[in-house]
Write a structure and sequence with these properties.
alpha/beta, five-stranded mixed sheet, binds nicotinamide-adenine-dinucleotide
Length: 406
């Protein structure tokens, strides 16, 4: 995926910059990473390639996750770092974009080896990161415990405390309330703003959702604040469950990654499970994609019946499927805004650390809503004013902000 993901991101950036009239020099600067750190970490005789790409810091310190996965490579990290710069800019945060990772299968390691890997990663990068330079966060297969080890090692290396150097920390170590729910909650906020702009506020609408992990679960839970929006189908990697009178997730429990997902859906276990790929063709007004990249491609795009698609996963629609959907006037709420809730609450964690404060969940949710509502409205206005897609509008706003930053 990585090479094409980078090309897709770069095409969206170039198209937006060309529409805005910027010249080649400006465009080349937008595409180029400011720094790439490629190194190796040895733990117990095994060597693991490690990366941190710092893409663009014109708006503020680099910001982006660190993943531990065997497929991590420089192209993937470059693509994800590039997308982060445009995501933070699209939602108006004073942050840049970065990404990091280690090519490792953490399931093959003992806990002590994972800790060693995390500590060596932070120690190596210590001169290049920090609350004013680059603020990493958890991502695939990394969590608050791993981030806490990194913060500890980083602080030891620089010889002073700097809690704002990482986000996604445990609550006792300066983490923020509301972080776990933030991406799903943000997806609902973006959807509701879109519906308002279309005059569909309060209208009864149905929703089918692919993915019931962290993001899908919190999207579904937050949706209960809008009873006219009815979740009628959900899918995980194995099955789709359809219940046309609505799926009640009140008693659904959040299960850690790796636990069989149906446990989270115990309330609808009485409903017959159908194949996982049925979800994209369910007759619902809104399709929420909260699982993986490339969920909708040329292979299944013609089956999509929804009029509105919310991209909660990163890049869940291939570029050629996107063209077909836009041709049919399907509205696509793009990932850079729809799933930005997570990075917005990471930003709020950083702000709390800087101010040495701990905000309540209500305070965090209110600030998240305010930032994302503004970002959604700006995207909707730009899209309408120029008759361009929501994704094109989001990239235009992001490009403009980065180019105009001092
Ligand atoms: P997760 O691993 O907790 O959950 C993924 C869900 O997708 C699971 O329910 C899994 O069963 C389902 N799934 C996997 N393959 C599927 C398939 N073929 N068909 C249907 N369902 C399938 O992950 P998550 O944290 O919920 O993240 C979901 C997506 O959102 C990822 O693409 C992630 O990169 C993106 N994202 C997450 C965050 C965040 O804050 N967690 C932020 C931005 C973007």
């Amino acid at each position: 995926m990585s090479k094409s993901m980078l090309e897709t991101a770069q095409t969206a950036i170039k198209d937006a910059a060309i529409r805005l009239g910027y010249d080649k020099k400006v465009i080349d600067a937008l595409l180029e990473a400011e720094a790439e750190h490629v190194f190796e970490i040895e733990v117990n005789g095994n060597t693991y390639p490690a990366y941190r790409v710092q893409h663009n810091s014109k708006l503020g310190p680099f910001k982006g996750g660190i993943r531990f996965h065997p497929h991590v490579n420089i192209d993937e990290v470059r693509a994800l770092a590039t997308l982060m710069s445009f995501k933070t800019a699209a939602v108006g945060l004073p942050l840049g974009g970065g990404k990091g990772g280690i090519a490792v299968d953490p399931r093959t390691l003992e806990a002590a080896e994972i800790e060693e890997l995390a500590r060596r990663y932070a120690k190596h990068l210590a001169p290049h990161i920090g609350s004013g330079k680059d603020i990493p966060a958890p991502d695939v297969n990394t969590n608050a415990e791993i981030i806490d080890w990194m913060v500890d090692e980083y602080e030891k290396t620089i010889g002073q405390p700097d809690k704002g150097s990482f986000t996604g920390k445990s609550m006792s170590n300066g983490g923020s309330e509301g972080r776990e729910a933030a991406t799903g909650r943000g997806g609902v906020i973006a959807l509701v703003e879109y519906l308002k702009a279309q005059g569909l506020q309060g209208q009864p609408l149905t929703i089918a959702m692919q993915g019931f992990g962290n993001v899908g679960y919190w999207f579904a839970k937050t949706l209960r604040e809008y009873p006219h929006l009815k979740l009628i189908a959900v899918a995980n990697s194995k099955h789709t469950w359809v219940q046309t009178d609505g799926i009640d997730v009140t008693n659904a429990v959040h299960v850690p990654a790796g636990t069989p997902r149906p446990e989270a859906l115990h309330d609808i276990q009485s409903v017959t499970a159908q194949p996982a790929d049925l979800i994209s063709s369910i007759k619902a007004d809104i399709l929420v994609l909260a699982a993986l990249e490339d969920a909708i491609t040329d292979a299944n795009v013609d089956h999509v019946k929804a009029d509105i698609i919310v991209e909660l996963a990163n890049g869940p629609i291939s570029s050629s499927a996107e063209k077909k959907l836009l041709g049919k006037r399907v509205a696509i709420l793009p990932d850079v805004v729809a799933n930005a809730g997570g990075v917005i609450v990471s930003y709020l964690e950083w702000k709390q650390n800087q101010a040495n404060e701990h905000w309540t969940e209500e305070q965090v949710n209110a600030k998240l809503a305010s930032i994302l509502t503004k970002a959604s409205d700006e995207m909707l206005e730009r899209s309408k004013a120029k008759d361009i897609s929501l994704k094109q509008a989001a990239f235009e706003l992001a490009v403009e902000r980065i180019v105009n930053a001092q």
